[in-house]
Q: What sequence folds into this?
């Protein structure tokens, strides 16, 4: 493996950063002692140290100096000050991977020392359970090995694909924000079953498994979603009645608009 024995440091240990750390350790591609994280919130860092066995510090410079691969997992709004703080510690041998939504590669390449190797990634929160969907785009100075490293890290916590940087905002709107679009669907489906008399725990279990099973069928069969829908939808049956109710409520437009609006917000973040 190209990542094994390399030291990976996270600048930012929030929900996304900690999800990736948990996923990476669970996948076994990096030993906990080769993983480090910095964050302003020391109590949470100490929890991660106990829970995962990683190295922690409230000083970004400590983690930056100790890392071969530096993953920037900070909010887009704070990225400018973080890069200013880090640039003195970014040497030619370090690979920078950013998961900040909306921030173009040029921002990093202009703010950090000339020639810095940068890869932009948009994962999602499902990295916690090793089922993330990640889009990856290498910068102008990134080498083929850098891309391979990024693909290895993010493939270890789910599925990762290389995309043109021009599509990264779409990735953000689709898979980056997507889990939050699906969770209300699971809850709503369970609510429907509860209304029909089912207990909440059983309803949530069946709803979540139904979404998981449908997604697995789409991925493993390679069939168009419309074909899969038709496999379940018999004439004058129960499913077509449900489909009719969804279409009447404008489900397709609602989900399309959610992805489009989230993508637009990603573009807005990149312009600030």
A:
């Amino acid at each position: 493996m190209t990542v094994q024995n390399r030291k990976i440091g996270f600048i930012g240990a929030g929900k996304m950063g900690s999800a990736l750390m948990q996923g990476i350790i669970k996948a076994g591609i990096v030993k906990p002692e080769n993983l480090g994280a910095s964050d302003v919130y020391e109590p949470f860092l100490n929890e991660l140290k106990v829970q995962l066995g990683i190295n922690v510090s409230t000083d970004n410079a400590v983690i930056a100096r100790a890392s071969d691969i530096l993953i920037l997992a900070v909010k887009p709004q704070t990225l400018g000050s973080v890069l200013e703080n880090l640039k003195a510690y970014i040497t030619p041998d370090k690979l920078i991977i950013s998961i900040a939504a909306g921030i173009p590669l040029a921002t990093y390449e202009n703010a950090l020392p000339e020639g810095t190797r940068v890869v932009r990634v948009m994962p999602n929160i499902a990295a916690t359970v090793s089922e993330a969907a990640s889009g990856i785009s290498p910068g102008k100075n990134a080498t083929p090995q850098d891309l391979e490293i990024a693909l290895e890290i993010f493939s270890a916590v789910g599925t990762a694909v290389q995309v043109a940087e021009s599509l990264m905002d779409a990735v953000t709107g689709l898979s980056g924000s997507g889990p939050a679009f699906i969770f209300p669907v699971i809850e709503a489906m369970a609510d429907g079953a509860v209304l029909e008399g089912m207990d909440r725990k059983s309803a949530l279990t069946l709803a979540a498994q139904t979404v998981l099973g449908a997604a697995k069928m789409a991925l493993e069969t390679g069939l168009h979603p419309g074909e899969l829908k038709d496999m379940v939808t018999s004439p004058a049956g129960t499913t077509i009645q449900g489909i009719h109710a969804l279409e009447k409520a404008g489900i397709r437009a609602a989900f399309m608009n959610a992805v489009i609006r989230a993508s637009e917000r990603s573009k807005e973040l990149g312009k600030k």
Remarks:
- The chain has a mean pLDDT of 94.
- Strands lie at 8-11, 35-38, 55-57, 69-72, 95-98, 117-122, 132-138, 158-162.
